[in-house]
Amino acid sequence: xxxxxxxLVDSPVIITEVMSNVKGSESGSGSPGDRNxxxxxxxxxxxxxxxxxxxxxxxxxxxxxxxxxxxxxxLINYPDLRINSTLIYPCSYxxxxxxxYTSSDTTGGNVQPYxxxxxxxxxxxxxxxxxxxxxxxxxxxxxSIADACTTSFGTPYDTLDDFPSDPGDGISWERIDxxxxxxxxxxxPCMDSSxxxxxxxxxxxxxxxxxxxxxxxxxxxxxxxxxxDVNIEIRVKNLGLREVSEYELLIFDDENNDSxxxxxxxxxxxxxxxxxPSDSVSLFFTFSHPSQGMHNLGFKLDFSDDINLENNLVFKxxxxxxxxxxxxxxxxxxxxDNDGINDxxxxxxxLPKSGGLLxxxxxxxxxxxxxNVCKKEPCSATTGTIFWNGEAGAKKIPSGMYIVYLExxxxxxxxxxxxTTVLAR
Length: 425
Prior knowledge:
Layout: H1 2-5, E1 13-19, H2 32-35, E2 38-43, E3 49-50, E4 54-57, E5 64-68, E6 87-88, E7 93-97, E8 121-125, E9 140-144, E10 150-153, E11 173-175, E12 187-189, E13 210-211, E14 217-220, E15 223-225, E16 230-238, E17 248-253, E18 266-271, E19 280-287, E20 293-302, E21 313-321, E22 327-330, E23 333-334, E24 345-350, E25 357-364, E26 369-378, E27 383-388, E28 391-392, E29 395-396, E30 400-410, E31 413-423
Parallel strand pairs: 7-8, 15-21, 23-31
Antiparallel strand pairs: 1-2, 1-11, 2-7, 3-6, 4-5, 4-9, 5-8, 9-10, 11-12, 13-16, 14-16, 16-19, 17-18, 17-20, 20-21, 22-24, 24-27, 25-26, 25-30, 28-29, 30-31
């Protein structure tokens, strides 16, 4: 119980990576499971800290004291490591290794398998194991006797969250954000191809990836006539592992079609909204009175920490005509196969007056009625947008050319319009 009280006191030294399920055999004297476990720590502070009074505890046996690494045979493979010291420098890593890491018993192979960077401080414990040998379900705390500072891994304060668990053979657990506390959501299995990153920045720490997709840019209406406005919804996806808020969206009219934003082409620069991992957020812009003709609108995310810039720029065409009539369809070919790309037909309509009854029907090219998109629905506005998913009731309509027919009745007058669309499955 006394140990758990230490969790209330933050430490400038934090646990950042834990390797419990090492590659190879997990039992037997000198086997990888006995010698290749490690705990990585990091000094967040601007001060050098002496770890001589620190202990590490896995809740299975008595806490282990932190000792300097004294076996200089480790320098054969790693000549520039720091040993014989417990001083961890500011903003630097240290590794707590099992004393048997340099054992001459090479049972099970995987001998000294880690690529440890130069100048990394190497530490160990007062006996031949870290705890009683790290288990995949072992939480850890590391704390100071002198000032009660503590850091943890595996949320030891919550025994019901089933964390940690086995991340896979030879894969470590990595802390995602070094400035956030020990919570289940702040740890992920290492993403590096080697399975771990001892003494180096975690593979999860800078896994930022914002993305734009053409199908996530929605123009309403999709085409318009001179003097009208178009409302644009831009959906920004977070494909990374970290929440992001400090980014900007640039929207430009690529007049020379060179796919590069020139200063005179910028329409607006929008501050991004907070978007969580595996989520998306919508940003909005109204393009007022675009000129007649074709506009190649560019949408670019400006985010310096993004690890994949290839999905940060997309384009969307906007057609502005002198007279568009009463009905416009977009895209030219729609593919309702639920892949997220052109899955729906966007039907934009323009009516002479509001207050009438609107009917939208789908016919095949022989004139057979297939589907009522809407029938005699009251309209409170002169413009609107309706989407069709390529189905008639629960039945999927096959690939082909189809006719979208509009009929609008207002106080005895009737407005009619029709256009063709192509459905491809």
